[in-house]
Amino acid sequence: MTFKCGIVTGLAASLLATTAMADIKVGFIGSLSSDTGLSTLRGAEMAIEELNAAGGMNGEQITLVSADTGEDVTEGVKAYEYLAETEEVDFVISGSIDDVSLGWLPRMQEYQIPTLDTWTSYIGIIDMVIEDPETMAPYFMNIASDEALATLYINFGADVLKAQMGWESVVILAEDTAFGEAITGLVTDALGPVAGIEVKEIITYDIGTVDFAPIFSKAQASGADFIYQVSSVNSQVISSQYVKLQVPMAMTGVNVSALGLEYWEDTGGAGGSISTLSPIPSVGFELDPASQKFVDDYQAKYDTRPKIPHFNGFNAYWGLKQAMAAAEEAGGFGDVKAWSAAMKKQDITLEKDGKLWLRYAFWGDDEVEEVTGRTYPHNARFDLTAPYEDAQPSMVVVQWKENGDVGVVYPPEYATTEFEVPSWVK
């Protein structure tokens, strides 16, 4: 009898120990072979290490599991299902590109797992939050959506491309993706009416394109003053060919490969003069002390690319901490509505030289952004009107120079260098 009682006591102790050691499980979804995906993964890893060192979340340690999307929509759906059904994660942090996020979103709505997108900026997802707030309650996007991105670029078009450079017409070269379609639509609708720049032609290309010579020839034939490119996949190809072919038109736009320090090496040094919109922090962007510490710790921990995380690595680092803080307030991730309500209140403000520099916060459900006149529930807070007192600008424009230097050229408050036309363009 004593022996049996000892077994029961041992089992009870074991169960209690297991309960006490229960973990909070975070699932990463994204490409494990891309700088974009690794930026989010590593930002999440660093945040979890710091949180666990400080006692975890409500005394529970946080673990991380990953699911590779390979930047493929079908694989992305499978990856989300794996995290939900096999790993039974409490929270998902995503470094997915737009098309992949759109693929797994129906699964998120079904499983109702709190999820944070750190890279995807598709405005259509925020529209889904507006139209279906109940099933989209678990979803947050802590990067300014592409409507805000386009608004900033239209200002750049009016202030620099039109007023400073005197350019009056543009030809758009856009990849055939959801991201490409969204940005093209926003720029087309607003670049002419607001910036006074006529869109001469829109040329859409497949992301597998390896020979851009015919496309550049078609762009030249349009008679436009400059090229606006929209490229999130294999962007280094169009960049290097533009430089090697010395296309006699300036080219700007949205080029994801140019967002990382590896861009110069990836293009074989043939990436000069390319300018691109970038969420912040970006390459060439001055950092506040807290962000600089994150980069220093990152470089001490990782010795493979990306050399510094892309913007979504910063988003993952701060966003995961916010998600855990919201879970502490909500009593865990199980009550999605309670967690969502707590997540909306998360607000981290970072200062540089005594003024606001970066802010990780979210728009309220009914808040109307004054420039666009619309709401952005569950989207990262941004400011479209200088001086930037409420939040940082939605994006900045960075430019790679022909000598390999890179800096911010717009807006003026964050600029570290001047916008330049390629030396071969007259």
TrEMBL record:
**Signal peptide span:** 1-22
A Pfam family that the UniProt record links to this protein: Peripla_BP_6
Q: Which UniProt keywords apply?
A: Amino-acid transport, Signal, Transport
Q: Which GO terms describe its biological process?
A: amino acid transport
The record's SUPFAM superfamilies line, in alphabetical order, gives: Periplasmic binding protein-like I
* InterPro entries linked: BCAA_transport, Leu-bd, Peripla_BP_I
Q: Does the keyword Thylakoid apply?
A: no
The Leucine-binding protein domain is annotated at 24-348
Q: Which Gene3D superfamilies match?
A: 3.40.50.2300
> What family does this belong to?
Belongs to the leucine-binding protein family.
Q: What is this protein called?
A: ABC transporter substrate-binding protein
